[in-house]
């Protein structure tokens, strides 16, 4: 178990070094002004033209193109000032061991008379800071709102101030435990699980808990609540890397469900500047387009927006493998989509008793 903690130890070290990196950023700007220069920064471009897919890393990455922002340019002064303030606020969080959410950063700026026109602008500047420093916002203690959860036989040990050394088993709460900052960076102590099942929807997550899926199939259950937040994707990766647990993903049978699974596996273009968020060997286990036909599931017609999304996925290099191409073509052919709950036509426990074991057997 000690060896399997290595990746989290690295992550914890980076978290401690975030304050140092932020200080170096500030020192660079100070020295520029001391030498009579207008402060400036150069960072990788996050434009779509500079985002490319890496087959070796199996995720999107940023290319070689750089952009420069200088206070000499009046149009750069506002975003530059916002970036410097965000670095200052992130440094406060890091050194004082406090956490914040994306929304909290936006509202906290108002207390400092820092102007963001909306949270979207604030979020974008935080992403710029990640790109400049080379660390994810979670290392600055900035997290998304909690909405995903985990349930199963895993004992963790907290490392956050005031809870150091306190242990908890993740079967302790019948609704699952929210994957927040404290859980994200906790230590893994022990588990009897031999797999992770990531589930898109809350209703099905609750059903799986009620039906003791964690015991029947020796699994940790993770609710992604739609598109998994980055902290949840990082946590799933930790379960896979540190505990060597294979990961299977269950989503609705539609192009959006496919994308939820793929972002866990290969990341997103929006996070091309980051590493450590993907679980490349995770498997999308369903619900597939072919399942709609094979299980004669209740379905709805695909909309034009759905079809447009399918064509986008068909061209996306992440979906080039045989399984993905087969399912995309099947969706296009049958022009139908189905929910995870569609299996209820055969009884409330059919998905647990029949469908799930067949899928788990297929990924062995």
Describe this structure in words.
The protein has helices at residues 6-34, 74-96, 102-111, 119-133, 181-184, 202-210, 213-216, 230-242, 255-266, 289-294, 304-315, 322-334, 350-362; strands at 40-44, 51-54, 59-62, 66-70, 100-101, 142-143, 149-151, 154-157, 167-169, 177-178, 187-191, 195-199, 219-223, 247-250, 283-286, 300-301, 336-337. A six-stranded mixed beta sheet has the order 10-7-13-12-14-15, sandwiched between helices. It has a three-stranded antiparallel beta sheet with strand order 9-8-11, with no helix packed on it. The chain has a two-stranded antiparallel ribbon with strand order 1-4. The longest helix is centred in the N-terminal third of the chain and has 29 residues, at 6-34. The chain has 13 helices and 17 strands. With 364 residues, the chain is an alpha/beta fold. The two termini are 23 Å apart.
Taking the sheet with the most strands, its summary is: 6 strands, mixed
Q: What CATH architecture of the largest domain would you give?
A: 3-Layer(aba) Sandwich
- Provide the CATH top-level class of the largest domain: Alpha Beta
Spans with pLDDT under 50 lasting ≥5 residues? 1-11
The mean pLDDT is 91
Q: Going across the major beta sheet, what is the strand order?
A: 10-7-13-12-14-15
Number of strands: 17
Percent of residues in helical segments? 40-55%
What proportion of the residues form beta strands (DSSP E)?
15-25%
Distance between the termini: 23 Å
Shape: globular
Q: Give the count of helical stretches.
A: 13
H-E order: HEEEEHEHHEEEEEHEEHHEHEHEHEHHEH
Number of domains: 2
The class by helix and strand makeup works out as alpha/beta
Radius of gyration: 22 Å
CATH topology of the largest domain: Dna Topoisomerase Vi A Subunit, Chain: A, domain 2
